[in-house]
Write a structure and sequence with these properties.
Length: 280
């Protein structure tokens, strides 16, 4: 994989299936990201993992919603991921701890469900991202009533992620003169259908499963629900967490996402990160 730009093999395959003009336009929407899967011993992306203990700097308060403790769901080690992100995340950001109100898993406290019904899964108080310098972070035990999930180290496979079929990012793209009718009206579906005609393009990540950065998958066909009807195109995706053994979200299922204004991400201000879940 060419860390200095879009790999030529990806450009070539997209040009073959979409035409050179449309491919060039579409790939401007592709963002670098990582497919996260369970790591074999010695292959983890730094401290990246699902569950386990939070890695916080001493004195950092444990996040809560209305006095109820959130649960640590994941850690991303941006020092290990930084070379692929092209300066998107400031150097030295370190570890990102992802917290959310666990109201659905078998480990959840009954009071968490009552709180989630009142607040809603996408209430900014119900999800938090806390950064910690890797050289200063220490393992931090969860307080009472917070869920404590078994740690699963992650390996991170780099690649590029195109917007989901119904992502509003497609509305910002002029498909060019060669795309007409239904293809123009439903550009995301048109592009994905064309790219599916053959083996997966090299370097293009499928957004299924756990995903760091890149762009989120919204199986319900929606897009991130943001405060005050903000434009999703001004936000950047941080983490997509799919339901798994110990943890899941929503009565029938769903994906947990965290998003952040792009300007805040570039400034390293993770206090502005918010939960943007997609519940089936």
């Amino acid at each position: 994989m060419d860390h200095d730009g879009m790999p030529s093999a990806l450009r070539e395959v997209c040009a073959e299936r979409l035409g050179a003009d449309l491919a060039a336009r579409c790939l401007t929407l592709a963002r670098p990201g990582f497919a996260l899967t369970e790591a074999r011993p010695g292959q983890a992306a730094g401290h990246s993992r699902f569950g386990g203990l939070a890695l916080l700097e001493p004195g950092t308060p444990w996040p809560s919603c209305e006095g109820f403790p959130l649960s640590l769901l994941a850690v991303l080690d941006t020092d290990a991921l930084h070379p692929w992100l092209g300066g998107l995340v400031p150097v030295g950001t370190g570890l990102l701890n992802f917290f959310a109100l666990d109201s659905d898993s078998e480990l959840s406290d009954p009071a968490a469900l009552e709180l989630s019904v009142q607040a809603g899964y996408d209430d900014p108080r119900c999800g938090r991202v806390i950064a910690a310098r890797a050289d200063a972070a220490v393992e931090t035990e969860p307080p009472a009533r917070a869920s404590d999930f078994t740690p699963t180290p992650w390996t991170a496979r780099p690649g590029f992620v195109l917007p989901d079929t119904w992502d509003p990012a497609w509305d910002t793209l002029d498909p060019g003169p060669d795309v007409e009718g239904i293809g123009r009206a439903m550009l995301g579906m048109h592009v994905r259908n064309q790219l599916a005609e053959g083996p997966p393009p090299p370097g293009l990540l499928d957004a299924e499963g756990h995903l760091a950065f890149g762009r989120p998958l919204f199986p319900t066909g929606s897009s991130p629900v943001l405060p005050d009807d903000e434009d999703p195109n001004t936000y950047h995706h941080l983490l997509q967490l799919d339901s798994q053994n110990e943890w899941y979200i929503g009565g029938d299922g769903g994906c947990m996402h965290w998003s952040i204004p792009t300007e805040a991400l570039r400034d390293g201000d993770f206090t502005r990160a918010i939960p943007t879940p997609d519940i089936f």
